[in-house]
Amino acid sequence: MATPYMEVAEIEKKPFFARIREYIDNRFEIVSVIPTLIIVALVVLVPTILVIHQSFYKKDVILRILKFVGIANYIRAFSGMDENFYRYLGHTMIYVVFATVIGLSLCILISVLLNSRIKYRAVFVACFLLPWMVPPVTAAIMWKWMLNDSYGVLNYLLVVTGVLDHMFSFFSNVTTAWIWLIWVDIWYNSPFFIIILFAGLQRIPDDIIDAATIDGAGRWKFFTNITIPYIMPEIQICLILRTIFVLRNFDFIYVFTRGGPVDATETLATYIYKVSMHFLKQGYGSALSVIMLMLCVLVTVSYFKTIKAEVEV
Fold it and tell me: Which domains does the chain have, with CATH numbers?
């Protein structure tokens, strides 16, 4: 009969690498996650901690100042000492609302159309995925060239077809600048959300579809009473991710307008960049970055609380 002392002796007799292999086999689910956790810690956690730490300092690269100021940077933002903060926060909220509502509505519509029995569905799916394969800066430059008021192909087509009398500078006008910023953001990010919603539509059972057809449910009733309830979890996830994507969007705004005309399209993301890299006030820029991070966390928590409340009801 084996005793605990005999088992310990047997374990000690095993080669070192054999014991490591046995340990990994017994705790594979934990060990397999460790590399990912290390990468996340190095890429996300460490920079976040450094930014939070730097937000409590007055760091001015030009004047070579590094001084601990506590929460003075946050007070400067929220107290109105920085008159730009609330204005650019308002621009950001307008951008988020329009880009999220319009973009998500189009994604739902397109995913429903793709789920219907249309010809060449695979071709349409591939076409809708193309924008997401292009790097965001490349996509922004491409659209900026097409909309250029001197040689832009879209500008030229609008003049040729009689829509415009002359070549128009879209990014010199506040309204058209916002319209194109929102549109290009929707065009670029929609494929990701279309895939999620399209996958959710595959969960609708065939017997429910057949029953609705037999009962004479029209397309609108089927959409509102069956489609939307079934894909509601996917819609809620897309809503969270879409809001965060728009909140932190920097590429399109910086390439198209750099916050102009004047500062009409300046958002928190571009303002943080200018404060940190142009004005070299990196302490205050870090505080603004932490505020944006808190906005993203607040949005996520709010959405999840709403989802939990709906599930409990």
Answer: 1-32 (no CATH), 80-312 (1.10.3720.10)
